[in-house]
Amino acid sequence: MPTGVLSPRPRSDQGPPPPTWMVLLGRLGCAPKLAGELWAAFSSLFPTRITLVRFELDRMAGPAPGAICEQRAAHFGELIAPKDMLAASARLATEGRPRRSDVVQFEENLLRHVSHNGEWC
Q1: pLDDT tens track for 85-119
Q2: CA distance 62 to 84
Q3: Distance (Å, rounded) from C-alpha 100 to C-alpha 38?
Q4: Could you give the CA distance from residue 13 to residue 95 in angstroms, rounded to a whole number?
Q5: Most-buried pick from 70, 97, 98, 109 (CB within 10 A)?
Q6: What's the distance, CA 64 to chain centroid?
Q7: Alpha-carbon radius of gyration of the chain
Q8: Percent helix, percent strand, percent coil in the chain, to nearest 5
Q9: Tens digit of pLDDT for each residue in 54-88?
């Protein structure tokens, strides 16, 4: 099949994380290397959502009035639930080995932004 400008990127190669992903995860204390690993893990766990997530992250980076920024952030929070991020971080853990300290720290930081019922707060 010929590839053109409008051809979707194959699911096995979702490319590098969007800059907004790196900023958001940086605010959760993630080093760039871990943010990239989490993007790859999220992409492999949720391949059908990754195009929409990338689109929403790109929209969040664009200029907009405050109310629109809040709407975009709320919509993004619906696309990626805290449990999705925890599933991606769990993907980085090798069974039978101690968990990486950077992953544990990320999970602790993430959980500070999660309510008692598992939603973003």
Answers
A1: 999 999 998 888 999 999 999 999 999 999 999 99
A2: 25
A3: 13
A4: 25
A5: 109
A6: 21
A7: 15
A8: 60, 0, 40
A9: 999 998 888 888 888 888 888 888 899 999 999 99
